[in-house]
Amino acid sequence: MGPMVKPALRRAWRGRRTVQFGVARTHALRLAPVDRVAAAFLDLLDGSRSLPVLRAEARALGLPAERADELVRRLAAAGVVADPAADGAALAGLGGAPGALERLRPDLASLSLVHAAPGAGAARLAARRGMRVRVLGAGRVGAAVAAALAAAGVGRVEVHDGGSVRGTDVAPGGLPASAVARRRADAAARLVREAAPLPAPRAAPGADAVPLSLAVVAPRDGLAAYRPEPAETGPWLAAGVPHLFAGVIEATGFVGPLVLPGGTACAGCARRFEAEADPDAPAMLAQWRSGRCARPVAACDGPLAAVVAGLAAAHALSFLDGELPTSTGARWEVALPLLDWRAERIVPHPGCGCGAAGRTEGVGAATAGAGRATMAG
């Protein structure tokens, strides 16, 4: 096995002397000058030839070995070349039934573009296997988030919710119509199992529970995530568990904030700023949460729920893979019918006991620890 041009990148000639790898501007790059001999050499970079073999075939084409090595180095430095051997070593321990890894090939291709170093994408995909995520809520958003995370290779995805599945919980990508009247926890667990390409890893005998890497708060009642109760998120803060809010309320979808305990604003920070800006807000929120307040049918149509669930899952995976997505300390909102995404920055409140105020180093520390397990339970 040897170097290969990443299969995720399409290749085209830009004029007669320039080759462009990639279509989207985010990852596209150009290589020049490239003559016909060099172009023929590029066709050999399919992973089936070792470097010594590539040098020999380059000489047969009339391309000096030094020039061939230079081309490989330039492409590797630009993130265009993958290393099948490194990918194979990273994925060797995943196991699973035949064809399981085939379901993860699109995910690996995506990771190979985002993390350009040879083998880096495969290493992150393999690391997902050891992570544990808890999704709070098995409605139209929460169930779809859980399924998406499991399908992307996260090894342990738990869904916490009570009661039985209703018709209003059913959505494409989430709970199916056949789950109606079943216990939500059981239906969500089955959804996760069917979505996962690989079975959940087994804990070693006598080992402690795998700590949580992330919690996704996506309750069926969108208000509970749009205006979260600090007392309910307190345990996440105390245990140092990063948590991401997501949901739909009144035809408005939202993703974020992603809270990094001690590093970014928490639910208590947002509540304090809201009360200072609007003295009536606490009383109104109490009325909305009260059982005496009429509870309308959730205005959460299927396409909007799918959009929110997809974005929330993508932000969660970005964090688990070691990045800080734009929902970190911010909430993204989108409302029907125009679907114009807008971001609202949520800053730490100096009077909140979460300790995030004035600590920008918390974000940097979270970058290094993103995706690491932090709490058992």
Q: Between the first and last Cα atoms, what is the distance in angstroms?
A: 43 Å
Average pLDDT confidence is 89
General shape: elongated
Radius of gyration: 24 Å
Approximately what portion of the residues adopt beta-strand conformation? 5-15%
How would you classify the helix and strand content by structural class?
alpha/beta
Oligomer: single chain
> How are the strands ordered across the major sheet?
7-6-8-9-10-11-12
Query: Which CATH first-tier class of the largest domain would you pick?
Result: Alpha Beta
How many structurally independent domains? 3
Reported by name, the CATH topology of the largest domain is Rossmann fold
Largest sheet: 7 strands, mixed
Mind telling me the CATH superfamily name of the largest domain? NAD(P)-binding Rossmann-like Domain
List how many beta strands DSSP finds: 12
Count of helices?
14
Estimate percent helicity. Answer: 25-40%
CATH architecture of the largest domain: 3-Layer(aba) Sandwich
List the helices and strands in order. EEEEHHHEHHHEHEHEHHEEHHHEEH
Pick out the low-confidence regions. 361-377
Which descriptors apply to this entry?
377 residues; alpha/beta; Outer Surface Protein A, domain 3; 14 helices; 7-stranded mixed sheet; disordered C terminus; elongated; 14% strand; Rossmann fold; 3-stranded antiparallel sheet
